[in-house]
Automatic annotation (TrEMBL):
<feature type="binding site">
    <location>
        <position position="303"/>
    </location>
    <ligand>
        <name>Zn(2+) 1</name>
    </ligand>
</feature>
<comment type="function">
    <text>Catalyzes the reversible cyclization of carbamoyl aspartate to dihydroorotate.</text>
</comment>
<feature type="binding site">
    <location>
        <position position="58"/>
    </location>
    <ligand>
        <name>Zn(2+) 1</name>
    </ligand>
</feature>
<dbReference type="GO" id="GO:0044205">
    <property type="term" value="P:'de novo' UMP biosynthetic process"/>
</dbReference>
<dbReference type="GO" id="GO:0004151">
    <property type="term" value="F:dihydroorotase activity"/>
</dbReference>
<keyword id="KW-0479">Metal-binding</keyword>
<dbReference type="InterPro" id="IPR004722">
    <property type="entry name" value="DHOase"/>
</dbReference>
<dbReference type="GO" id="GO:0004038">
    <property type="term" value="F:allantoinase activity"/>
</dbReference>
<comment type="similarity">
    <text>Belongs to the metallo-dependent hydrolases superfamily. DHOase family. Class I DHOase subfamily.</text>
</comment>
<dbReference type="GO" id="GO:0005737">
    <property type="term" value="C:cytoplasm"/>
</dbReference>
<dbReference type="GO" id="GO:0006145">
    <property type="term" value="P:purine nucleobase catabolic process"/>
</dbReference>
<dbReference type="InterPro" id="IPR011059">
    <property type="entry name" value="Metal-dep_hydrolase_composite"/>
</dbReference>
<feature type="binding site">
    <location>
        <position position="230"/>
    </location>
    <ligand>
        <name>Zn(2+) 2</name>
    </ligand>
</feature>
<keyword id="KW-0665">Pyrimidine biosynthesis</keyword>
<dbReference type="Pfam" id="PF12890">
    <property type="entry name" value="DHOase"/>
</dbReference>
<feature type="binding site">
    <location>
        <position position="276"/>
    </location>
    <ligand>
        <name>substrate</name>
    </ligand>
</feature>
<feature type="binding site">
    <location>
        <position position="150"/>
    </location>
    <ligand>
        <name>Zn(2+) 1</name>
    </ligand>
</feature>
Amino acid sequence: MSAYLIKGVSPLGAAPTDLLIRDGVVAEAGSGLSAAGATVVDADGLVALPGLVDLHTHLREPGREDAETVESGSRAAALGGYTAVCAMANTSPVADTAGVVEQVWRLGREAGLVDVQPVGAVTVGLAGERLAELGAMADSAARVRIFSDDGHCVADPRLMRRALEYVKAFDGIIAQHAEEPRLTEGAQMHEGEVSTRLGLTGWPAVAEEAIIARDVLLAEHVGSRLHVCHVSTAGSVEVLRHAKARGVRVTAEVTPHHLLLTDVRAETYDPVYKVNPPLRTDGDVAALRAALADGVIDVIATDHAPHAVEDKECEWAYARPGMLGLETALSIALEVLGPRWDLIAERMSRTPARIAGLESHGVDPAPGAPANLTLVDPAARRVVEPGELASLSRNTPYAGMTLPGRVVATFLRGEATVLDGKAVR
């Protein structure tokens, strides 16, 4: 196993120190360290964070390897500073059996760039009609603990209740894509002033808020764990705030794009800005940022959604919703939160690792800690060039934007996956 001596790094922005990584852990920390045979990494001016963890990644394999593979998505994740990602179930075939989740898990292990933790489907084929093999997926080699029909809402309240009751037996989580489908039929973007002006069918905020309100009541009744995917409205924040004040076991995530972009982007009719849930208003963005800072929203999750060219570069109405996120998420967090390193570590590493049950992740760099960590240059600024991204797809909404921060190195269990800003393999 390789050894690395990281010289002069600032753990979470604290005073510079040296870190010696050996045998998969942080072996020593202190000034003036030396280690024969170790690869020296000059980290002057860099900040060390626990490796980032993404609760919401679409890797497309199996089925849409033209848009992304487990390997290419893992490489994008490592370049973005991630050491673990949760791979959503809307593949083809759907990850609704032990066999499919184990396939995704093994592909992640073979790639060896990040830990790929599969998310199992709640219902068979994401059809919302009957429960998938939740217990079999939980007992599989992949040890699935999060289940989601993301891309589809579990709209039937009886089925949602049954799912929450089922996973309670092994402390699992149901992650809900909150969208009342009868309120969003034919929707193209956020329902509001811009959609009216553009003549596009609107996706009302209440379609999200109503499902969240229903599900926190169900979770409270059952005593089970609920996670709300990609929260996007100010009203949703208030529902979550009230639920948490009552002690409901609910956590929530927000995406980088919902923290930065608004529905005015749709005025260009550029399908790169089409996403589900849609980009909302300035007021929603402000509420999401405040909720992220005060803990009502627990996690930044990318909802990394790669699409092939033919599925995205077409008329708005026919384009598939979704945006790339893995390689730019940390920069967006810095843009929105500033260099609040402890808060960034909490929202992008510690809390998502805890929610997903990934015990070796989300641990601050200190002696004895697993060497899953990320080195960031906070002074760097970079222009996002789609052609330079590791993802097989190019549907980034940040093309041409100048963003702060640059991931210089990423380490997974003590082995470098990224050095000098480049993937090691």
